[in-house]
Amino acid sequence: MTQGRAPGALTGRLAVVTGASSGIGRAIALELAARGTSLWLIARRPEGLEATVAEARRHGVTARSCPLDIRSDGDLERLRDRLRGECEGLDILVHSAGAHSLGPVAEAPVAELDEQYQVNLRGPYVLTQLLLPLLRARSGQIVFVNSSAGLEARARVGAYAATKHALKGLADALRQEVNAEGIRVLSVYPGRTATPMQEMVHQQERKPYCPDRLLQPADVAAAVVSALGMDRTAEITDIRVRPMRPNGAKP
Prior knowledge:
There is one protein chain. The protein contains seven helices and seven strands, in the order βαβαβαβαβαβααβ. A seven-stranded parallel sheet has the order 3-2-1-4-5-6-7, with helices on both faces. It has a single domain, classed as Rossmann fold, CATH 3.40.50.720. It has helices at 23-34, 46-57, 73-86, 110-137, 158-178, 196-205, 217-228, and strands spanning 14-17, 38-43, 63-67, 92-95, 141-145, 184-190, 238-241. The protein is of the alpha/beta class.
């Protein structure tokens, strides 16, 4: 077989994608659907989630809507139980749900740190624990959608960067633990991407939001799904992707 992306490697696979109602999570879900992957899609907002499910089904795959709060252990355990009752295993787990707030360390409310910790780190940690047996059954793959802030912190994003640095540590440790079982672990570090979250960040920064000058969710999804479809002779551990014009400069 030719090295690189295996033809049809993702057809007939099963993936769980969090944060699937918008942004990068939605784009990854739709790219997987286009490759023939069945989906269990997770988000807090049912209306946005249903729109993603409807779009995914247009590719002829099975797609299920799973509205839940990633901060709730009970919600995550019920998801695990449903998957365990209906599936023999899981091929792909994509962690794309995220929370973000701005503020200097000296002034940012601790409650905002707690919220970002719950969504950006603890939720992925718990969900990974719960679904590892299903991933082991299929020698599955795990994707952590991180951030450029998970590699380099900046002023006013201390809480967010701290949770994303911790997410990198989780992914790196997990990779060492499960590689021998044939499980691949990928961390993705997008720069500023045209998503609802980034629009909110621009508003907080009092900067004009020009999405056409930013990285597009489909760009991130293409990179992720290409890595997932590679032959098992290789593993991409980290992807760093940024806007072609990272400072928003005109061409």
